[in-house]
Amino acid sequence: GETGTGKEGVARYIHTVSPRAKGPFTAVNCAALPETMLEAILFGHRKGSFTGASHEGEGLFRAADGGTLLLDEIAEIPLPLQAKLLRALQEKEVLPVGAVKPEAVDVRVIACANRDLAQEVAQGRFRADLYWRLNVVPLELAPLRARRLDIRAIAAALLLRHSPAGAPLPFPTVEALHRLMAHSWPGNCRELE
């Protein structure tokens, strides 16, 4: 789905209603991570495995063990690291940077992208084997402009989230709701919030 459509919110909901709800929910925006550190951040590292590694790093896969790991903007992961990610998903184990023995992990992975991954595969920018490993239950979140009737419910949820406890709920008037529903929402739910 486009940026701001609520992909992380859907991932959190899936985690919350799953048998993994008591486990951790770990979210990472792959586009925001430095490419040179991405492997260590995902899989962990051993002390001294690279300059500045003064202590052992757990890594996000191990941090999410028993729970859910959200890999947001997965299309931004470089091709060489995609092969390591595929192996982690297939074998259910990670090899921390500097380690010689892989470690088992039990993680549900939810992957999100704001670009069509099938097109990315066709263009050679995303591995086909990783795409098929991730494409188990595909969901596409429509932009807010394509689901205008949801605006009322989302606005109500946002007002509840941001209203002080015990304060009266400042719900919008009918005119305000019509104006909200008439807007094109290029920033989707993030803009509405």
Textual characterization of the structure:
The longest helix is centred in the middle third of the chain and has 13 residues, at 79-91. This protein has 9 helices and 5 strands. The protein is mainly α and 193 residues long. A hairpin with an 8-residue loop joins strand 3 (93-94) and strand 4 (103-104). The strands form 2 sheets. A 3-stranded parallel beta sheet has the order 1-2-5. Strands 3-4 form a two-stranded antiparallel sheet. The protein is 38% helix and 9% strand.
Order of helices and strands: HEHHEHEEEHHHHH
- Give the helix level as a range of percent: 25-40%
The average pLDDT score comes to 90
Secondary structural class = mainly alpha
Beta-strand residue fraction: 5-15%
pLDDT under 50 segments (min length 5)?
none
Biggest sheet features: 3 strands, parallel
Estimated radius of gyration:
20 Å
> Gap between N and C termini, in Å?
17 Å
Shape: elongated
Number of helices: 9
Enumerate the strands of the largest sheet in spatial order, edge to edge or round the barrel.
Answer: 1-2-5
Care to count the β-strands? 5
